[in-house]
User: Which sequence fits this backbone?
C-alpha cells in the first residue's frame, strides 16, 4: 500500500505490485533531465555561505543536497552523487538496499529539487571560488593560462601538457602555459573534471563574534593570562568552548573587584546600545542553555551528534 503523502511518478495503477512500481521509479531516475538553469554557465559559489541541506529522505539515505550545484553528496564517503547513482552507491559501498518506500520518496524529492541524473549533466562551479563542501578537500594541481577563456584544471602535470598540445596547439617540447593551483573534483570515476578553488575564500565573510565584541569594548585591555581552569573539574558547556570565552579577558573574571562591576554593567544593556548586540547575545545564550539540554532527546543519534558538536572531527577514542 502506498504510504500517504508519498508520490509515485508515473501514477502506478491500483493493485500494481511492488516490483513494477520500483521499476517505474528506476526508469524515472534514468530519464534525462535538463539543467536547472537551462544553461551551461558555471555557478558562482559565495565565500562564507553554507550550501549543504539535509532533513527528511536525505537523512534516511545519509545524503546532503547541494542546491546550487543540483547534486547530492554521501555524508560518510564525502563524494558527489547524482540521483541515478544513489541506489547503486548505497548497495555497493554501504551494503544497503533502498526500500520501495524510500526510493519513491527519494524520486519525488529529486524531481522537485531538479537534481541531476547523470554526472555528464553537472557543470563544475566557477573557478577561484571556495571549495565545495561535503567532498574531499582541495589538492595540488594546475590551471591553464594559455587562454583567458580556458577554465581547464587538472591534478597531474602530464595531463596539462597534453591539454596544451591538443587544445592550444602548443609544441610538444615547448613551455607549458599553466600555474600551480588548488583543485577539486566532484566525481571520482573515469572522465572526472577538476576545477580550481581558493581555500582562502572559504573563510571570507565569516564574522568573529568575539572580535566584534572586543571592538565594541575599547576600554578593556587585552588579556595576557591563559584560560582559567574549569570550576570543580567540570568541562565548560559546548557553546562556551566553541566561542572560546575562557580566553576572553580572563583577568577581569579572575578578580572579584573587577568581575562584579562588569556583571552589573551587563545587566544594564539597552536595546539601542551598539544596535542591540549585547541584549540579543544574552537572549541567545539563555535560549541555547534551555534548548541544548533537551533538543536531542529521543533521537537515536543523540550521543554521536553531541560528540560532533563538542569535538568536531577530532572525537577522542575514549570520548
Assistant:
Amino acid at each position: 500500500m502506498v504510504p500517504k503523502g508519498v508520490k509515485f511518478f508515473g501514477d502506478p495503477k491500483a493493485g500494481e505490485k511492488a516490483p513494477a512500481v520500483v521499476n517505474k521509479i528506476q526508469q524515472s531516475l534514468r530519464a534525462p533531465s535538463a539543467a536547472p538553469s537551462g544553461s551551461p554557465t558555471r555557478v558562482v559559489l559565495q565565500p562564507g555561505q553554507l550550501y549543504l541541506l539535509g532533513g527528511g529522505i536525505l537523512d534516511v539515505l545519509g545524503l546532503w543536497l547541494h542546491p546550487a550545484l543540483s547534486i547530492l553528496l554521501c555524508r560518510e564517503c564525502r563524494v558527489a552523487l547524482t540521483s541515478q547513482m544513489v541506489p547503486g552507491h548505497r548497495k555497493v559501498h554501504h551494503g544497503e538496499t533502498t526500500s520501495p518506500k524510500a526510493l519513491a520518496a527519494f524520486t519525488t524529492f529529486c524531481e522537485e529539487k531538479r537534481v541531476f541524473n547523470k554526472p555528464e549533466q553537472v557543470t563544475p562551479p566557477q573557478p577561484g571560488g571556495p571549495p565545495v563542501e561535503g567532498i574531499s578537500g582541495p589538492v595540488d594541481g594546475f590551471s591553464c593560462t594559455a587562454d583567458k577563456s580556458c577554465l581547464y584544471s587538472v591534478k597531474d602535470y602530464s595531463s596539462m601538457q597534453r591539454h596544451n598540445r591538443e587544445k592550444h596547439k602548443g609544441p610538444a617540447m615547448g613551455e607549458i602555459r599553466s600555474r600551480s593551483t588548488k583543485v577539486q573534483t566532484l566525481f571520482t570515476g573515469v572522465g572526472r573534471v577538476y576545477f580550481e578553488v581558493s581555500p582562502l575564500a572559504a573563510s571570507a565573510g565569516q564574522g568573529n563574534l568575539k572580535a566584534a565584541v572586543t571592538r565594541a569594548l575599547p576600554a578593556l585591555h587585552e588579556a595576557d593570562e591563559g584560560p582559567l581552569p574549569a570550576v570543580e573539574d567540570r568541562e565548560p558547556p559546548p557553546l562556551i568552548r566553541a566561542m572560546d570565552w575562557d580566553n576572553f579577558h580572563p583577568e577581569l573574571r579572575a578578580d572579584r573587584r573587577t568581575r562584579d562591576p562588569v556583571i552589573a554593567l551587563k545587566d544594564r544593556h539597552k536595546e539601542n546600545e551598539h544596535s542591540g548586540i549585547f541584549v540579543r547575545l544574552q537572549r541567545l545564550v539563555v535560549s541555547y542553555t534551555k534548548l541544548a539540554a533537551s533538543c536531542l532527546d529521543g533521537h537515536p543519534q543523540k550521543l554521536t551528534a553531541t560528540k560532533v558538536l563538542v569535538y568536531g572531527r577530532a572525537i577522542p577514542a575514549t570520548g
Remarks:
- Residues 1-22, 24-39, 205-210, 212-233 have pLDDT under 50 and may be disordered.
- The CA atoms of residues 120 and 238 lie 43 Å apart.
- The chain has three domains: 18-121, 139-203, 209-311.
- Residues 18-121 form one domain.
